[in-house]
Amino acid sequence: MQALGKILITGSTGFIGSHLTRRLVEKGYEVGIIKRRNPNIWRIKDLVKRLTIYETDLQDTDAVLKVVSHFRPNVIFHLATYYAVEHKSEEIPLMVNTNVLGTMNLLQASKESMVKLFVNTSSCFVYKQSENKLIENDDLDPLNLYALTKIQAEQTCTFYAKKYGLKVVTFRLFPPYGPADHERRLIPYVIKSFYQGKPLKLTTGKQRWDFVYVGDIVDAYLKLLNLSSLVKKHEIFNIGSGNAISVREVVSRIKEIIGSKLEPEWGAIPHRKNEVWFICADTTKAKAILRWEPKVDILKDGLRLTIDWYKKFGNLS
User: What's the pLDDT band for 4 if we cut at 50, 70, 90?
Assistant: First the structure.
């Protein structure tokens, strides 16, 4: 067993969390997961016998304290979240309770059980929109209520780091993609539409985003296991590719790889009122401190790897 070999994960049944869980199990770490009752566990179904599983609601303060006290992790990777691009009023309590209260409960449990490292997962959409690459100390101006709750969670992390000396890292993730992504997201939707020959209705596609491959994101989390001694407070890192690619380029490359003759219906879907036209990470800090940098280029390798997975497992018929 390696140093910091006992790890507790929230969000393990989700897109990124499942990839992280799988990699940690494969590397021989002792992994515990906190999950809601009756979630869809298809992404990690084959791993359940190799995990310690706790069915606990992150909103339940006492229950979270008991789980962390029982499992005694060295590290907590917190990826559970409630996401909504444009929230409905009835979603507010769940979003706040999951993203803010849930994080606070985990931090309190980490303090009481003397967890060596707490890793929080945030979003690039906390930043004020800019035409330049974003650095960690740029101004914040949340895109939506989801991003606001992520800022509040980050502030809670800072409080626990300053007040109690807890070692905390926050990753601000730029748009992730890869195998086993949510079907409603852009890239899986485009892949399925091309394979099934269904109408592909899109916006103008002129947005330029920093898409980062899920395997590279997992690499960043794993870097922390060997570099936790460098964390002295609440450290925040951008995790992105450092390159902004237009949606049109992404769709064109998917079409090329699949060999489809289907023509996308550009402009068939209106842009959101809060559309993000450009977002790109400056990853200098992550490279310097974590010695991490992305390996997978979306146009060269990333989309092909993603498409290959959907061909095998994606129910494209």
Answer: low
Phi (first) and psi of residue 7, to 5 degrees: -130, 135
| Number of CB atoms found within 10 A of residue 198's CB | 11
| The pTM of the whole model exceeds 0.85 | yes
Smallest Cα–Cα separation from 216: which of 248, 247, 238, 186? 238
Name the strands in the sheet holding 75-78, side by side, starting at the edge strand that comes first in the sequence.
52-55, 30-35, 6-10, 75-78, 117-123, 168-173, 234-239
Cβ(192)–Cβ(310) below 8 Å: yes
Structure tokens, 209: 């985003």
Q: Is 104 exposed, middle or buried (0-12, 13-18, 19+ CB in 10 A)?
A: buried
The 10s digit of each residue's pLDDT in 297-316 is 999 999 999 999 999 987 76
pLDDT digits (tens, 9 = 90+) for 43-88: 999 999 999 999 999 999 999 999 999 999 999 999 999 877 777 8
Q: Do 80 and 11 meet the contact criterion of CB atoms below 8 Å apart?
A: yes
The 8-class DSSP code of residue 236 comes to E
Q: How far apart are CA 101 and CA 115, in angstroms?
A: 18
Beta-strand runs (E) in 152-206: 168-173, 176-177
Closest listed residue to residue 209, CA positions, set 277, 134, 282: 277
Number of other CB atoms surrounding residue 235 within 10 Å? 20
Closest CA to 293 of 218, 216, 231, 211: 216
What is the three-class DSSP state of 63? helix
Report the distance separating Cα 60 and Cα 238, nearest Å.
30
275's CB contacts (< 8 A; 6+ apart) are 203, 207
